Amino acid sequence: MIHGPTSAIAHAMAMSQQTTRRPRSEKKPIPDEQKDDKYYDRRKRNNNAAKKSRDSRKAREDEIAIRASFLEKENAILRAQVATLREEANSLRQLLLQKRSQV
């Protein structure tokens, strides 16, 4: 299970997908005597389409996870830079105040 900001992204994606789906119709088993070549061809095409859809969704989710990881690392670097710059600004302020008080 993913924790942190990436889990929030995954949860938001899951929720948005759930709201756009239409309800499934009730499954009815097809009698063997109605299963002809057309039926098996349609099943094969459907199975291939379902697999393609699952694979593309997994690829999208993997891409999003990689992007989120990259952004989290970049964010950590930027936060460290901000902290360093704030410390430098405070040091410079102190130096300026010292110079002013000496004059």
From TrEMBL:
GO molecular function: DNA-binding transcription factor activity, RNA polymerase II-specific; RNA polymerase II cis-regulatory region sequence-specific DNA binding
Gene3D superfamilies (alphabetical): 1.20.5.170
Cell compartments where the protein resides: Nucleus
Stretches the record annotates as Disordered: 1-61
Compositionally biased region (Basic and acidic residues): 26-40, 52-61
Isomerase in keyword set: no
Main subcellular location of this protein, as a coarse class: nucleus
Chain coiled-coil ranges: 68-102
Pfam families per record: bZIP_2
Domain BZIP, chain residue ranges per copy: 36-99
Lipid metabolism recorded as keyword: no
GO cellular component terms attached to this protein's record: nucleus
InterPro entries per record: bZIP, bZIP_sf, PAR_bZIP
Keywords annotated in UniProt: Coiled coil, DNA-binding, Nucleus, Transcription, Transcription regulation
Sequence similarity: Belongs to the bZIP family. NFIL3 subfamily.
Protein name as catalogued: BZIP domain-containing protein
